[in-house]
Amino acid sequence: MATAANAQSVEKAWLLRALLVLQSPRPVFAAIRDESKAAVEARQEPIIALVWLAGMAAVLAAPAMNTLMDDPARHDVIVVAIIIFFAGGIYGLAAYWVLGAVLYYVGHRFGSQGTYRRARHVLGFALAPLALALLTFWPIRIAVEGRDLFRYGGSDGGHVFADTFYVFVAWSVVLLLIGVRAVHGWCSRPSSNRASSSSGMPYVCCGSGNVPLRTSVA
Fold this sequence. Notes:
mainly alpha; 2 domains; disordered C terminus
């Protein structure tokens, strides 16, 4: 019973972090350092939810959506919703695995010893602003433009704030940068250590000092 209660507590904590990452990202990303079985399993569902919602938001921004309802076979709102749901999920999961691999290899290039799984989890939580866009920005835009959003030409009303979506994209990029630094403990190299820059290694914050992050374990 105690084990089950503890597992539920950990799951609730990660569900809460999926929301808190928008407000206080550093503690959330720092918690991803915990790669115990319980922690990894507890954050799987929040990550899948964030990735799926972010994928749907990205699909809605795709140029192909501008002509989606021009085809009589896709004229029904329910059909459009189903297409966006599944296309968004597939797109989001594909991006999660591919971009996670890119993040992993780039991190290793700069001296990271983190795992591929950790890189994916950092990316997953960094997508929270795009998931938020699906729940805030897109409902407003669809309410303004209606079916015209999915037709060629459309209306001029919604295009006034169409670029607002890219604010959420930029927010995700910022969270990703914060996440990488928080997970690996990287910080800016101080001017007093510039003489050591010839090593080509990033620095990791350790207490009050800075030491180079080595690429191999002694």
